[in-house]
Amino acid sequence: MYPEDLKYTTEHEWIRVSSDIARVGITSFAQDALGDIVFVTLPAVGDRVRAGEPFGEVESTKSVSDVYAPVSGEVIARNEVLDSTPELVNSDPYGEGWLVEVAVDDAGATAALLDAVAYAQHVQGT
Amino acid sequence: MGELSRSALHDRHVALGAKLADFGGWEMPIEYPRGGVLKEHAAVRSAVGIFDVSHLGKARVHGPGAAAFVNSVLTNDLSRIAPGRAQYTLCCDEESGGVADDLIAYLYADSEVFLVPNAANTVDVVRRLAAAAPPGVAVDNLHTAFGIVAVQGPRSAELMSLLGLPTSGAYMSFVRASWPSAGTEVIVCRSGYTGEHGFELVSRWADTPALWDALTAAGAPLGALPCGLGARDTLRTEMGYPLHGQDLSTSITPVQARVDWAVGWGKQRFWGRDALLAERATGPARLLWGLRATDRGIPRPHMTVYGPAGAPVGEVTTGTFSPTLRTGIGLALIDRTVGEGDTVQVDVRGRLSTMAVVRPPFVPASPR
User: Fold this and answer.
1) Which of A86, B56, B146, B295 has the fewest Cβ atoms within 10 angstroms?
2) Do B61 and B141 touch, CB atoms closer than 8 A?
3) In this complex, is the C-beta atom of A76 within 8 Å of any C-beta atom belonging to chain B?
4) Among B134-143, B177-186, B356-365, where is mean pLDDT lowest?
């Protein structure tokens, strides 16, 4: 039910790492819990993000959630289309609804994150 | 807190996959997977939405002089309406003038008034009324004797007609209708809390599922959606309609919340009269205003409002994203030093968001 090629955080972010570049978004569970997303606030390209610390916000009609960095690194891309079409986070959270791309400081840091099975168990426990 | 109460339509909501949440002690749908708040909101503004609002209370005050009794305690002037009409009114605290509840009073006859209080306040309202009722006037809590379904939107009358339900009534009038057959009575009131033309249907608890099924089936070709209380909140916020527990409470008076149009100032008696007359004479210390964000901030309840001089001047009581305006809007209780046309700053989680102080509605209202 959660893509197997991704890693996950307990805060409901996903990360896809290829070489030293990580793409980050929020999970289907997270977007469903938030409801219709109306604003996405993301860091600028060049900003540093630190593992476990909030780097952005996803806001719905009902509530707002911080988004936490799964790994540390430098933002090399932000999904600009979310400024005008934040609903992509709802409709395609693992695809067009990605949030940022990060040049990862330590490629080994993702080993500590959850795989799809562990994340599914985490979600069931919440 | 005990177990949550459930609507007669609970099984329907579960079958539709609704997200359910506690609303005044009732487990009610917030949104449905087919819609979501934005789509459900849009359905009401452009077509028609169908809401289960069975969590709302129902109470009957009856006996000789029932209407006169209600008129002597609730704020609005019941003598301004005739039997067959309903009225927005307030149950204020006698001492403070604060609002214990805002409710709808349906005037059936001099000897019978039907009340629709808020879910969480029903027991309190019934207790206050029962304690004050004169001999011969009884107050019955009928919370689970009836369900209420709201049909709201520009195509609401069309949908009602498809079921053979009456649509010709004037705003805030109600009629008894037989549906689906003789002997099964539904009360149809031309009312709602969305700012759109609409109806609220009060049916016997056991008949409510059939009514819901008929409305949702007949409404589908019209673009009708089942709508949750999430959309009801964004719709009423766009109108600037207050919600008890946020914009109205026992510590907020009708003068402050600007619902004093629902106070019969000429009446000799109603709960809170002395306190409210005194406040009206001196002027309230604060007023409920609309806030409209000029940036991407969305106001949320309890956020602090800062005035043009940088000092705190009030607090947000309601706030959300306006699906129609695509910007943050809200209501806030603000000191009298600040008013319409001013620009304020709202502390949105540590960032200051700039908002205009405006007079609601935020979106043109067309409930009539």
Assistant:
1) B295
2) no
3) no
4) B177-186
